[in-house]
Amino acid sequence: MSIIAPVSKFDEPEFNELPFKRLSAAEALALRKLQPPVSPWRIVSLQVVVGLLVALAAWALTGRVVAAWSAAYGALAVVIPAALFARGLMSRFSSLNAATAGFGFFVWEAVKIAVSVGMLFAAPQLIEGLDWLAMLIGLIATLKVYWLALLMRPKRITD
Known about the structure:
Shape: extended
Helix content: 55-70%
Radius of gyration: 22 Å
Mean pLDDT: 86
Largest sheet: none
Order of helices and strands: HHHHHHH
Number of domains: 1
Number of helices: 7
Strand content: under 5%
Oligomer: single chain
Distance between the termini: 66 Å
Structural class: mainly alpha
């Protein structure tokens, strides 16, 4: 029986000789002006605002305080881990070089996931009469802020 190996175009010479040009300091600065970064703290603050709005909406729509607390807790299960993640990524250690930045990203992402899961497991013990639907809505609405932040990127700076 013969084995048919997949053909990879990456082995062709044109893919091995892709042009690479190191940017000068002025070119890098110009690129940063064209594509300004989004602050992680801006995203966290937007998540807090959305979480508060969802909690108020849950209270207004249901008339039950426990629904508002449940929605707020769902938002907190996103905001607190996101704040830890942002703090970890902005630390001095995480910005030493590319290797520590990459390692820091994965470590803080793991911390973020662990804290989120821990908070969700603790929810029934912390909120008496927890409204799971309100908590889930608060969690999902707050998670969607990441997409909203992409749409609200800072404007390009032109000279």
